[in-house]
Design brief:
By secondary structure, the protein is mostly helical. It has seven helices and two strands; from the N terminus they run ααββααααα. The chain has a two-stranded antiparallel sheet with strand order 1-2. Helix 1 runs antiparallel to helix 6, helix 4 crosses helix 6 and helix 5 crosses helix 6. The longest helix has 34 residues. It starts with a helix and ends with a helix.
Protein backbone atom coordinates (compact mmCIF):
# COMPACT_ATOMS: atom_id res chain seq x y z
CA UNK A 1 0.00 0.00 0.00
CA UNK A 2 2.87 2.37 0.81
CA UNK A 3 4.37 1.73 -2.63
CA UNK A 4 1.10 2.72 -4.32
CA UNK A 5 0.93 5.95 -2.33
CA UNK A 6 4.58 6.69 -3.09
CA UNK A 7 4.19 6.12 -6.83
CA UNK A 8 0.84 7.91 -6.90
CA UNK A 9 2.43 10.97 -5.30
CA UNK A 10 5.34 10.88 -7.72
CA UNK A 11 2.94 10.53 -10.64
CA UNK A 12 0.85 13.49 -9.46
CA UNK A 13 3.88 15.73 -8.95
CA UNK A 14 5.21 14.75 -12.37
CA UNK A 15 1.84 15.51 -13.97
CA UNK A 16 1.68 18.94 -12.31
CA UNK A 17 5.23 19.73 -13.43
CA UNK A 18 4.43 18.70 -17.00
CA UNK A 19 1.29 20.83 -17.07
CA UNK A 20 3.16 23.84 -15.71
CA UNK A 21 5.97 23.30 -18.21
CA UNK A 22 3.44 22.97 -21.06
CA UNK A 23 1.77 26.22 -20.06
CA UNK A 24 4.94 28.32 -20.21
CA UNK A 25 7.58 26.40 -22.18
CA UNK A 26 6.97 28.06 -25.54
CA UNK A 27 5.50 31.27 -24.17
CA UNK A 28 8.46 33.12 -22.76
CA UNK A 29 7.78 36.52 -24.30
CA UNK A 30 4.96 38.67 -23.01
CA UNK A 31 4.45 41.54 -25.41
CA UNK A 32 1.74 44.05 -24.64
CA UNK A 33 -0.71 44.63 -27.44
CA UNK A 34 -2.52 47.46 -25.70
CA UNK A 35 -1.47 51.00 -25.00
CA UNK A 36 -0.16 51.91 -21.57
CA UNK A 37 -3.34 53.89 -20.80
CA UNK A 38 -5.61 50.98 -21.74
CA UNK A 39 -3.50 48.48 -19.78
CA UNK A 40 -3.64 50.64 -16.68
CA UNK A 41 -7.45 50.58 -16.78
CA UNK A 42 -7.51 46.81 -16.35
CA UNK A 43 -7.06 45.73 -12.70
CA UNK A 44 -4.41 43.18 -11.70
CA UNK A 45 -3.17 41.10 -13.57
CA UNK A 46 -3.75 43.56 -16.41
CA UNK A 47 -4.05 42.54 -20.05
CA UNK A 48 -0.45 42.14 -21.22
CA UNK A 49 -0.40 38.46 -20.19
CA UNK A 50 -2.88 37.67 -22.99
CA UNK A 51 -0.33 38.31 -25.75
CA UNK A 52 1.74 35.14 -25.41
CA UNK A 53 2.63 34.89 -29.08
CA UNK A 54 1.99 37.83 -31.37
CA UNK A 55 2.31 35.62 -34.46
CA UNK A 56 -0.60 33.42 -33.44
CA UNK A 57 -4.28 34.30 -33.30
CA UNK A 58 -7.43 32.33 -32.53
CA UNK A 59 -10.54 32.54 -34.72
CA UNK A 60 -13.86 31.68 -33.08
CA UNK A 61 -17.30 32.57 -34.48
CA UNK A 62 -15.71 34.87 -37.08
CA UNK A 63 -13.99 36.93 -34.39
CA UNK A 64 -10.19 36.98 -34.10
CA UNK A 65 -8.75 36.75 -30.58
CA UNK A 66 -5.17 36.78 -29.27
CA UNK A 67 -5.62 33.35 -27.64
CA UNK A 68 -8.19 31.02 -26.16
CA UNK A 69 -7.97 32.99 -22.94
CA UNK A 70 -8.75 36.22 -24.80
CA UNK A 71 -11.80 34.50 -26.27
CA UNK A 72 -12.92 33.44 -22.78
CA UNK A 73 -12.68 37.11 -21.78
CA UNK A 74 -14.58 38.06 -24.96
CA UNK A 75 -11.74 40.34 -26.01
CA UNK A 76 -12.25 42.70 -23.06
CA UNK A 77 -10.23 41.72 -19.96
CA UNK A 78 -11.37 44.83 -18.09
CA UNK A 79 -15.08 43.96 -18.35
CA UNK A 80 -14.91 41.28 -15.67
CA UNK A 81 -11.82 41.49 -13.40
CA UNK A 82 -12.62 38.24 -11.58
CA UNK A 83 -12.88 36.33 -14.86
CA UNK A 84 -9.60 37.92 -15.99
CA UNK A 85 -7.88 36.86 -12.76
CA UNK A 86 -9.22 33.27 -13.07
CA UNK A 87 -8.07 33.06 -16.69
CA UNK A 88 -4.63 34.33 -15.63
CA UNK A 89 -4.42 31.63 -12.93
CA UNK A 90 -5.55 29.01 -15.47
CA UNK A 91 -2.72 30.10 -17.79
CA UNK A 92 -0.17 28.84 -15.26
CA UNK A 93 -1.57 25.33 -15.51
CA UNK A 94 -2.91 25.09 -19.07
CA UNK A 95 -1.37 26.37 -22.30
CA UNK A 96 -3.24 28.78 -24.61
CA UNK A 97 -3.65 25.90 -27.08
CA UNK A 98 -5.49 23.92 -24.39
CA UNK A 99 -7.74 26.93 -23.72
CA UNK A 100 -8.48 27.14 -27.45
CA UNK A 101 -9.47 23.47 -27.53
CA UNK A 102 -11.83 24.01 -24.58
CA UNK A 103 -13.42 27.01 -26.31
CA UNK A 104 -13.83 25.11 -29.57
CA UNK A 105 -15.36 22.09 -27.85
CA UNK A 106 -17.51 23.72 -25.14
CA UNK A 107 -17.97 27.29 -26.38
CA UNK A 108 -16.83 30.48 -24.67
CA UNK A 109 -18.94 30.31 -21.51
CA UNK A 110 -18.78 26.59 -20.77
CA UNK A 111 -15.14 26.41 -21.91
CA UNK A 112 -14.23 28.95 -19.25
CA UNK A 113 -16.05 26.98 -16.55
CA UNK A 114 -14.73 23.59 -17.72
CA UNK A 115 -11.14 24.86 -17.77
CA UNK A 116 -11.55 26.38 -14.29
CA UNK A 117 -13.03 23.08 -13.06
CA UNK A 118 -10.03 21.15 -14.43
CA UNK A 119 -7.69 23.65 -12.74
CA UNK A 120 -9.48 23.13 -9.43
CA UNK A 121 -9.29 19.36 -9.90
CA UNK A 122 -5.52 19.49 -10.49
CA UNK A 123 -5.03 21.84 -7.52
CA UNK A 124 -7.21 19.63 -5.29
CA UNK A 125 -5.24 16.53 -6.27
CA UNK A 126 -2.01 18.36 -5.54
CA UNK A 127 -3.19 19.45 -2.09
CA UNK A 128 -4.50 15.93 -1.35
CA UNK A 129 -1.26 14.17 -2.26
CA UNK A 130 0.99 16.70 -0.53
CA UNK A 131 -1.09 16.44 2.64
CA UNK A 132 -1.07 12.64 2.51
CA UNK A 133 2.68 12.59 1.88
CA UNK A 134 3.29 14.74 4.96
CA UNK A 135 0.91 12.60 7.02
CA UNK A 136 2.57 9.36 5.90
CA UNK A 137 6.03 10.74 6.57
CA UNK A 138 5.22 11.69 10.15
CA UNK A 139 3.23 8.51 10.86
CA UNK A 140 5.43 5.89 9.22
CA UNK A 141 8.91 7.27 8.43
CA UNK A 142 9.78 9.89 11.02
CA UNK A 143 11.81 8.55 13.98
CA UNK A 144 9.15 9.75 16.44
CA UNK A 145 6.49 7.61 14.73
CA UNK A 146 7.51 4.59 16.85
CA UNK A 147 6.64 6.64 19.94
CA UNK A 148 3.21 7.46 18.55
CA UNK A 149 2.20 3.82 18.01
CA UNK A 150 3.51 2.32 21.29
Amino acid sequence: MRAMTKYGSILTITLCALLAHDAHATNTTYASTTTAAAASEVPFPGSSWLAYDNNRTFLYDDVTYLSGYDAMLKGDPGANPVRNFNAWINSFIFSPATAEQFVEYFGIEMGYYALSYCRNFVAGAFVYYVTSAIFHYFCYVHPQSKEIFK
